[in-house]
Amino acid sequence: MPDKQVKKNALLGLIPLLAVALTLPRALLNYGLDADSFRVAAAAEHLWRSGEYIPSRLPGNPLFEFMLALIVPWGGHLAANLTVLGFGLLALFFFHGLACGRPNAAILTLTFCFTPVFLLNCATCMDYVPALALLLGSAWLALSGRLTSAALMLGLSAGFRLTGILGGLPLWLWLAGQRRYREALTSTALATSVGLAFYLPGIDRYGLGMFKVPATAVNAADLLSQAGYRAWMCLGLPAWLGLGWLLVKSRGRDGMVRSVSRESTGRLERMYESILPPVYFLLFLLHPDEISYLLPAVTFLILWIGKHIPRRETFVLGLLLFSHGLLCLNPLGGESGKRSLRLHLAPGLIVNDWLERRELNHLRLGLDKLSLPQHSVLITGMGDILTFHNPLLEPPEAGFSTLIDPAGIWEPGQTRLLRGRDIHLVHTLSSGNVQRLQAAGYHLFMFSSFAPSTTLRRYGFDPWQAGIGRVEAFGPEAFYR
User: Is the pTM of this model over 0.85?
Assistant: First the structure.
C-alpha cells in the first residue's frame, strides 16, 4: 500500500478518536448548557413514566424524545449524551462518504470534525446532531442512487427536527429537472409522510397551531443584530476571514477539486452543496435564537468549500475553525440585557462549554446557599436546566399561582419553592407580574447572568430599570462560592 494511502487511512482512523476525546469529558457533566437539553430529558422521562407524550417545546422533536424515553430513565445524562455522540460519529461517516473521491476528502472530514458548533452539539442532549447525521445519510444514499432509502432517512431526520425535511429540496429539484416527476413526487410524499407521522401525537394534542413560530418582543433590527452576532460566534472571526481569503485565492486556479466517483450525479452533488447552505441560513434569519440552527448550513458549506481549495488550505481552515473552540474574539461585552460592542478575547465554544457546564453543576447544587430574605421571588431565566431532578427544590405553594397573570409568566410549570424556605424560583416574568408580586409584599431578585436577556426577549421588559435585586449565578462572585 502506498505511503500516501497509509497516511490517509491513519487520519481517517484518528478522526473518530479525536471526536470522542473532544466530546466525552463534557458529556460526563450534565445534559448541556442549552436549557432545551434538560427540557427534552424531562419530556422523555414523563413519556416513559406516564405513557403521555408532551413535547418539550412546540412543534417538538418527537423521534428524539421517543428515543430518549428508552434511555434517560435508566441512563440519565451520560447515556443520552453518548447516544448523541454516536450520531455524531455517524455524521462523520456520512460526511466522508459525501466527500469521498476527492483528493482532500480525509482532510475535509477532519475540518468538519474540528468545527466547534458540531463538537459542541456532539456532547449535548439535543436533536441537532442526530437530525444532521440522518440528513447527511439521506444525501449520501441519494447520490448512490438509492432514492427510496434516501427519502426514508430524510423522513427520520424530520422526525428528529422538522427542518430536516428541507434537506430534500436538492433531490426533488434535480429529479424534476430530469423530468422524473413521478420519482420526485413519490420521494417527496414518502419523506413527508414518514416525518409527519412522528408529529401526529402533538397535532392531536395541540392542533396545527403547534407549527406556528413563537412570538418575540424583539424588533427586526435587533433580530438582525442577533443573527449577525450568532453567525460570528458560530465559526469565529479568524475562520470567516480565512474562508474569504481562501475563496478569493482559489479564483485564480483552474477548475475545482473534483470528485472522481460520481460522474452521473455530479450535478445533484453540486445542488446539495449550493442550495442547502443558503436555505438553512435564511431559515436561521427568521428565528436566530441559537448558533446551532446554523449547523446544517455550515456542514454543507464546508463540503462546497472543499471543492474549491486543495488539501493544505483545507487543513488551514480546519485549524482556524478549531481555534474558535479554544479561544475566540467575542464582539459583545457587558451584562445580560446590557450588552454592547466590545471586542475582547474569551474562552472558545468548546472550552466555554466545559467551564460553564461545571459551573452549572455548582449552581444547581448550591441553591441552598442563597442568602435572600423570606417571602422572595427569584427570576432565574433558566427553567428545566435548573429545576430538573434538583433535590433542593419542591413544588410551589398552592396560592402562589393565584397572584400571577398566566399570560405574563414563562413556563409556569417550572416554578419551584426552595426546600424549607419561602423563596419561589420562576423562569421569567412580565413587568405586570413583577408589580403584582411587589404589591403582595414579595422581594424580587434575579440571576443577573440569565434573567435580563430572557425578560427582554419574552416580554420586552428590562428588569434592570425596575430595580430588581441582582444575584450572581456564575463567575467568581457567584452566591454559592
Answer: yes
